[in-house]
């Protein structure tokens, strides 16, 4: 019987490994299978192994409660929304991970999860993606374009958008750093981990996604800054200086970064339209479906946005009004905070900010740095993308759950048992 219980205890972890392995790919049956497997194995383990006996309150429990509350805003606000379109179900699916993983985090997970295994899985998937896309770019280079352009083009076409993949790459690097600096594995293991990290760094350096590149630079800077303060050694200060100079030169010569200073960004106009909506209904919001309809109508009335790619999909489809304008990914504010405010009003704004920021304020000792960097990477992208397929709440919810699943007892015996 003890053997059976031990096997059951590891099943949720295997489900989570499957989930993080599916993160960077477009939503298919595999993602659903991964989520369903966790939905089955988690309660099985919780009941069979009596996990409720280990439950204790901590600030992190409050974060998981906020996750659940944020997800419930969608069905609650729909009760008073006069418009109902397919966007309601899509949004409910998008925020569902906040609710279900919030419950799992509140109740508590088994101590079988190993963050280093999660890191290796994510790094391996990232390297496999880089190798596959690099092979395609080399085999079938685009006419008139260089290899770098082809790499990004095939990545978007054959795997997923740069927003999804760059966030996944950045999270992989954070967990790779965790393995290097917070575990006691043999040097050969850490060397192999570094070798896995190199192609991921390279993919972020040549990405056409500016948010992903700048996020990587900021995360590395903050990581080095933390270790500069902690170690106070001349060599880490030298590394910090070299990194700052090198990254500054690289960014100054990056064409995509320079475009920011020479071209007008449609996102600014999109944010302005969302801000105008907020000014009219700052307290209650519009509701999920009504907010999107209102936003699309304002975008189509904006002379500048009408002449950009933002309105192309809507205007090319005469049925968009009948369908509730809900299937067009480009037609949203590209800012999770602003869109949340337009939908759910002030309560939604406060809950959204708490969900995004509070993971950085929990207590994991020196391991808090890695959770903070993961949450910060998600927050940065949330400033440029709305919740949905390009900004999956599952990223943040899963990272929070993983970091609070075992309290790192297997890595740092001296760490507090409950944080």
Short structural description:
With 419 residues, this protein is mainly alpha-helical. It has 18 helices and no strands. 70% of the residues lie in helices and 0% in strands.
Strand segment count: 0
General shape:
globular
Q: Distance N terminus to C terminus?
A: 31 Å
Order of helical and strand elements = HHHHHHHHHHHHHHHHHH
| Regions with little confidence, pLDDT below 50 for 5+ residues | 408-419
Kindly estimate the percentage of residues that lie in beta strands according to DSSP.
under 5%
**Major sheet summary line:** none
Rounded average pLDDT = 87
Task: Estimate nothing, just give the exact number of structural domains.
Answer: 2
| Computed structural class | mainly alpha
**Separate helix tally:** 18
Rg of Cα set: 22 Å
The percentage helix is 55-70%
Descriptive overview:
The longest helix has 25 residues, at 115-139. By secondary structure, the chain is an all-alpha fold. It has helices at 2-22, 29-48, 59-78, 86-107, 115-139, 147-158, 162-182, 187-205, 210-231, 234-252, 255-262, 266-280, 288-300, 303-306, 312-315, 336-357, 368-382, 393-403. Helices cover 70% and strands 0% of the residues. Helix 1 runs antiparallel to helix 2, helix 1 runs parallel beside helix 5 and helix 7 packs antiparallel against helix 17 (368-382). The protein folds into two domains: 58-108 and 264-412 and 415-419, no CATH class; 116-262. The chain is globular.
């Amino acid at each position: 019987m003890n053997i059976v219980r031990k096997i059951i205890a590891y099943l949720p972890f295997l489900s989570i490994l499957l989930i993080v392995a599916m993160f960077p790919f477009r939503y298919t049956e595999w993602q659903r299978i991964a989520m369903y497997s966790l939905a089955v194995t988690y309660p099985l383990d919780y009941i069979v192994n009596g996990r409720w006996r280990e439950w204790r309150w901590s600030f992190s429990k409050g974060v998981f409660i906020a996750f659940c509350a944020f997800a419930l805003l969608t069905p609650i606000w729909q009760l008073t929304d006069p418009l109902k379109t397919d966007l309601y179900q899509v949004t409910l699916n998008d925020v569902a991970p906040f609710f279900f993983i919030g419950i799992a985090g509140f109740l508590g997970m088994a101590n079988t999860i190993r963050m280093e295994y999660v890191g290796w899985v994510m790094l391996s998937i990232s390297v496999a993606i880089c190798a596959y896309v690099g092979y395609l770019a080399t085999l079938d280079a685009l006419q008139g374009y260089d290899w770098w352009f082809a790499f990004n083009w095939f990545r978007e076409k054959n795997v997923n958008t740069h927003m999804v993949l760059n966030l996944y790459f950045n999270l992989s690097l954070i967990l790779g750093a965790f393995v290097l600096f917070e575990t006691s594995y043999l040097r050969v293991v850490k060397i192999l981990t570094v070798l896995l990290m190199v192609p991921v760094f390279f993919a972020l350096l040549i990405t056409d996604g500016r948010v992903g590149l700048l996020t990587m630079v900021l995360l590395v800077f903050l990581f080095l800054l933390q270790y500069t303060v902690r170690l106070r050694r001349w060599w880490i200060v030298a590394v910090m200086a070299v990194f700052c100079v090198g990254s500054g030169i690289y960014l100054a010569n990056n064409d995509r970064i320079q475009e920011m200073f020479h071209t007008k960004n449609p996102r600014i106009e999109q944010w302005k339209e969302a801000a105008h909506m907020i000014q009219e209904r700052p307290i209650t919001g519009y509701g999920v479906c009504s907010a999107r309809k209102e936003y699309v109508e304002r975008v189509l009335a904006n002379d500048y946005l009408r002449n950009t790619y933002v309105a192309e999909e809507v205007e090319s489809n005469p049925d968009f009004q009948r369908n509730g304008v809900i299937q067009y990914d480009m037609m949203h504010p590209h800012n999770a905070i602003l869109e949340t405010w337009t939908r759910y009003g002030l309560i939604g704004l406060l809950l959204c900010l708490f969900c995004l920021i509070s993971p950085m304020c929990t207590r994991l000792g020196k391991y808090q740095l890695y959770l903070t960097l993961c949450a910060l990477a998600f927050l940065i992208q949330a400033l440029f993308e709305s919740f949905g397929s390009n900004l999956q709440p599952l990223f943040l919810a899963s990272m929070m759950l993983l970091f609070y699943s075992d309290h790192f007892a297997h890595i740092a015996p001296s760490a507090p048992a409950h944080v």
